[in-house]
Design a protein that fits this description.
Layout: H1 8-17, H2 21-45, H3 49-57, H4 69-96, H5 106-112, H6 123-133, H7 138-145, E1 177-181, E2 184-187, H8 207-210, E3 216-217, E4 222-223, H9 231-234, E5 246-252, E6 255-260, E7 273-277, H10 284-290, E8 295-296, H11 302-311, E9 327-333, E10 336-342, H12 356-371, H13 373-381, E11 386-387, H14 427-444, E12 448-450, E13 453-456, E14 464-469, H15 480-490, E15 496-501, H16 505-513, E16 519-525, H17 533-536, H18 550-560, H19 565-582, E17 585-590, E18 592-598
Parallel strand pairs: 14-15, 14-16
Antiparallel strand pairs: 1-2, 3-4, 5-6, 6-7, 8-18, 9-18, 10-16, 10-17, 11-17, 12-13
Helix pairs in contact: 1-2, 4-5, 4-6, 12-14, 18-19
Length: 628
Amino acid sequence: MAEKKKGRRAYLEDYRKNERGQYEYAGRRYVCQGVDLGRRRARIGALCAGLAAAMAAGEDNTDFTYWDEETQTAFWADLKQAGAAFAQEIVDYCIAAGINAEGDSVAACAANWGFELEEDATVDDFFNTMVEQYEGDYVTLSGTETAGSSLFDLMEDYDAYTKGVETEETAPNVSGIERVDDYTLRITTTELDATAIYQMGLPIVPLHHYGDESLYDYENNKFGFEKGDLSIVKAKTSDPLGCGPYIFKEYKDGVVYMDANPNYYKGEPKIAHLNYLESAEGDKVNGIVAGTLDISDPSYSVDVAKQIAAENGYSEDEWDKFEGPVLTTKLIDYLGYGYIGINPNNIKVGDDPYSEESKDLRKAIATMIAAYRDEAIDSYYGSTASVINYPISNTSWAAPQTTDDGYQIAYSVDVDGNPIYTADMTAEEKYAAALEASLGFFEAAGYTVEDGKLTEAPEGAKLEYECVIGAGGSGDHPSFLLLKNVAEALEPVGFTLTVTDYANANDLYSSYQNGIAEMWCAAWQATADPDMYQLYHSEGSTNYYQIKSDELDELIMAGRASTDQAYRKSIYQAAMEIIMDYGVEIPIYQRSDALVVSSERMDVDSLPGDMTPYWGWEAEKENLELLQ
């Protein structure tokens, strides 16, 4: 199966995972679309059987048992015009956002969206290419590639296809979904899956608004609407009704305006109006000082900490003072971690990316990178980040701890399995030991090593590889110094590590998501459950390492099939050891997110007392107070 490309919305999710301004850019984009994004997801999830069946049957269907040929022809014509409008919206967005220049071709805009087209391509060609990449999965395409509208919202006669189509015997209800009482719903799955609970982020919506109370009779399998007809839900698309502490008022000029909900079940919020303002990364701290923002989340680094210290009247050496008269900083562990990835299909010996020689080649590089992590991370983050040794966020309960049996510093043994370092080594001695171990891996991979230098690479391998990084073109990234130091250390032994710094983050994402990059720097955003399927399973949607391992796949699936944390943790540690043995990922750091608030205008004590990656300031925003 061809790997599906990720479109703009998916890129923005990656921006959220990236380590500088791109993270905040994702936030602005999502805030900008706010309620609409949630409604789009609900709409896509509520596609009726008529529409789904028509798409599944295909344009060339000749079985007109359940609909006539005229309806089918009209449906596909409508979907195609919607597809052209969908693609045009992406083109318009790229130009309006400054990603492309006015007058750029469809192909030029598509390239920044992650799709390669012929120079004279039309919007129809653009849409057809997306359909091909998604293998005809229009629903996923619509939800992933959207620049604002759902594909189905752009259909002129959508309503005609929202009625259910009865193709087999019908069921009056779903036996695994049961109403227990007025406030309890029971869902029973056909098999044990530890991740299932996290797939049930279902919104709770009021029956009186999104349904018809006269059509609700649970005992007789009536659930608030006529079976197969969700038009009553669709009619409320532009009139949402929720139950949160704030009511959406409007989005205007880059600001989402919300008013306190007087009927909120926990009590009316103490701040009457809450506004989300789109802000560039460089304006986040300055905005609080200037009074245009009260709470912000700058991408935290030593430089940002020093700026905050200066605003508080402290010296640069006092950058780790988190409370001041102007600004207060709250640090929370980032739900994710920074890493450097290696594509085994691009860095290998011979034709087998999983041979021992290919693994040794990647370990030769990984050993050097691992050795230089401490200096680089300390320089960029100071004490607010730490080096990690396994490909998992330290915020997860499954993360190995130093006290666990078998815990090991990443890439700290030589080709024979012996420790590279001793506890009393200086930094320079550590670097020298790492280089010696690296040469041992190179030699085991088939490189010719003469007098401590690499003179010839084996077939399929090279003496030069490239690592791409999104450091804004200026080296502003925690791993940039790390890579430059490694490149400098390897040069005297005949190995060239080229570091390419992309100013445009889209270039970075395209390079590794499309399998072009040899090595890349990025960060994963973790989830509450440590399930590894998406990242490392052979069929994982973001398995950019392109690992194909039956053993690893079995472990990942075994981890899903249990709710015993101790057992799952042991399973995932075994899986991570396989990943490290393949030499496809070097864990780099666990950093902190920063919440910065105005000490002059906000009652800092009204923030949640113990914020975590799962429970931030917004979780209790009804309790926030301003100083009088």
